[in-house]
Amino acid sequence: MNWKLARKAPKLAARAQIIQKIREFFSSRGYLEVDTPVLIPAPAPESHINAVEAGDLYLQTSPELCMKRLLAAGYSKIFQICHCWRNGERGSRHLPEFTMLEWYRSDSNYNDLMTETTDLLRYIAGTLSTEGVISYKGLNVDLSGRPETLSVRDAFARYTGTTMEKALEDDEFDLLMTDLIEPRLGNERPTIIFDYPAQKAALSRLKADDSSVAERFELYLAGMEIANAFSELTDPARQRERFLQEIAYRKKIGARIYPMPEPFLDELGEMPPSSGIALGVDRLVMFFTDSETIDEVVAFTPEEL
Amino acid sequence: MYTVADLKKGLKITLDGDPYLVIAFDFAKPGKGQALYRTKMRNMITGSILDRTYRSGETFEPASLEDRKMQFLYKEDNHFVFMDNQNYEQYRMSEEAVGDAKHYLIDNLPVDLLLFSDKAIAVDVPNFVNLRVVQTDPWVKGDTSGSDSKPATVETGYVLRVPPFIEEGELIVIDTRTGEYSTRVKG
């Protein structure tokens, strides 16, 4: 018997239950579950996201572009739970093939999603623990109240010896975020860290009163990045420009260049003001099952196949 | 020359002239950001621990160390004694320097000893080692869940979790990379 696999049964059961709760939550709020192709000709060009090639096509790195085409065609509240692939990403919180939950709403912005994401966490927690307090690796994270909210700029001021602007200039933004900021987020209650530098959010709308930052937020639980959200960029010309900047960066570092997603750009102009969010289901299950590594919450890791 | 893609637990590199062993490694990537490679390294001479985070494109010099085939002879006070299979020279290592490998050192176990300036600084045991269970509670009949575990002590004094059907006196295979039970030795 594969003893290691057999021992995963309780966590795989919790995983199934969490996914079922996610579906319940969105159905009860009038969201339509959609199912878009995983095999696509043109993943979104983003600086640091690499797709897995499949013949002449690619496995999706996210269902984002197809879901936005649905928004543009008038589908106003949609969600999807699907597998995504990101080449070369393997660590204690990364699998090259992982499960993503994405949802999008028209006529909303990222503030609405902050509330809705918090509601979702509370809904799942309510079915697992009556108090809404989840123990994770010695921490007690309280999901019952309001999350902590902190701008990226304030996070750099509070937790690093430098500023967000200086960190960007010195190419130390990601390093400081990983080493000094992330471990401090979401340890007592969820933390929402918002308003990322414009260059860190290729598909996001810039803030009206401060174009140096984008309306993007990330939600953290126990130091772990769980979800990433935007007020979506809906201007096709600006979106093309942002993609071209990402492509230029990819060329500079010698990364593969993907075709421009033309059908998406063609239809983007018809997309109403919307917000959207991507949430890592495996990490959410890690959090709710007190798991140290992502390996513990999937039946098989790539190394075991 | 190593690149970040070569980084993994057990890699030995030179940093500021000293040999370092990578003892923990993880891939990290802040949302939409660049790939980062977090390492924890032990100076193989002083034992001091260093945390470093690297980015794509960085390179490393391999540590110039000599690996020699040896066997474990015996433990004396707080030292472990090994013998070179070729020239019968003996090398001593402190319990601290041996580290987790001490859980698997049984007489005559073939090992790779790492030498830096003719001083043994690390020991590598085979990935799988057979060890005899010297103590474990009996299996409660009727428990057929198959997914429970219980503690067992093996002949080196190491305690690990094993499936309930394992009995005292049995030989089990341990994966030394994880320290976990792998399978029982049949027959």
Notes on the protein architecture:
- Chain A has 305 residues and is an alpha+beta fold.
- Chain A contains ten helices and 14 strands.
- In chain A, strands 1, 5, 6, 9, 10, 11, 12, 13 and 14 form a nine-stranded mixed beta sheet that branches. A three-stranded antiparallel beta sheet of chain A has the order 2-4-3, with no helix packed on it. A two-stranded antiparallel ribbon of chain A has the order 7-8.
- In chain A, helix 3 packs parallel to helix 9 and helix 8 packs antiparallel against helix 9.
- The mean pLDDT of chain A is 95.
- Chain B is mainly beta and 187 residues long.
- In chain B, the strands form three sheets. A six-stranded antiparallel beta sheet of chain B has the order 1-6-2-3-4-5, with no helix packed on it.
- Chain B starts with a strand and ends with a strand.
- Classes of the chains: A alpha+beta (305), B mainly beta (187).
- Chains A and B meet through helix 7 of A and strand 3 of B.
In whole angstroms, how far apart are the ends of chain A? 16 Å
Widest sheet, order of strands of chain B: 1-6-2-3-4-5
Largest interchain contact: A-B, 31 and 21 residues
Radius of gyration of chain B: 20 Å
Termini separation of chain B: 46 Å
The main pleated sheet of chain B reads as: 6 strands, antiparallel
Count up the helices of chain B.
1
Number of helices of chain A: 10
Question: What portion of the residues of chain A fall into strands of 2 or more residues?
Answer: 15-25%
Gross morphology of chain B is: flat
